[in-house]
Amino acid sequence: MDNEPDGGGRDAHYFDDEPAVPSDPVVIDVTLPDTAFALETDRGVFSRGHVDTGTNLLLRADLPLASAGHVLDLGCGAGPIALAMARRSPDATVWAVDINGRARELCRRNAERNGIANIEVAAPEDVPADIEFATIWSNPPIRVGKGALHDLLLDWLGRLAPGGHAALVVQKHLGADSLQRWLTTAGYETTRVSSKAGFRLLAVRRTGTG
């Protein structure tokens, strides 16, 4: 999930389990400084045919990532963040979570396509309630509206393990700075890691978790 449309109409991938638009998959090559993989993308899922600017910023940043335990790609889409996390932390279990069923199936296929076995793809309600995450990375769905976004972030950031950390990438003109202020008032230490091409990359830690 992210902040740019995919051409499927009304940003349906934020809201619908099964997109109404016909499938038309496109496979792209994703090359990062430390890894590379093939990524199948599709209509009705965010960022068909390319890795969006915000996700690129997150994946190329020097961010902490737990080497073991459970980590989360919140709003996985086709899975570029989940695949990169899994390659970088092969001993961790990467949870790739999305409301969009087509996105989940793409992410599963992309893990298989690239021989990655440490990704668990799930709908939000299917993630066991007792799991805590050492790391959360997300390009969150800003267009769901402020109230829904705040509820979403409070729910998942509340599952950070003690000492855990999160990274969120948000477009400046869609409220990155106000989101940073809100996260701080909600009890999360939030700092801007970088700013590029109209995006803010925010590092988030729960106050008092160490």
Summarize this, please?
By secondary structure, the chain is α/β, with parallel strands linked by helices.
Characterization of this structure:
The chain is of the alpha/beta class and 210 residues long. The chain has one domain (12-206): Vaccinia Virus protein VP39 (Rossmann fold). Helix content is 25%, strand content 30%. The chain is built from five helices and nine strands. The strands form two sheets. The protein has a seven-stranded mixed sheet, sandwiched between helices. A hairpin with a 2-residue loop joins strand 8 and strand 9 (199-206). It is globular and about 40 Å long. The model is unreliable at 1-14 (pLDDT under 50).
Mean pLDDT: 91
What series of H and E elements makes up the topology? EEHEHEHEEHEHEE
Q: Tell me about the biggest sheet?
A: 7 strands, mixed
Q: Uncertain runs with pLDDT below 50, 5 residues or more?
A: 1-14
Shape: globular
Identify the CATH architecture. 3-Layer(aba) Sandwich
Please give the CATH class: Alpha Beta
Structural class: alpha/beta
CATH fold-level name? Rossmann fold
As a whole number of angstroms, the C-alpha radius of gyration is: 16 Å
Distance between the termini: 29 Å
Number of individual domains = 1
Number of strands: 9
CATH superfamily: Vaccinia Virus protein VP39
Strand order of the largest sheet: 5-4-3-6-7-9-8
The amount of beta strand, in percent, is 25-35%
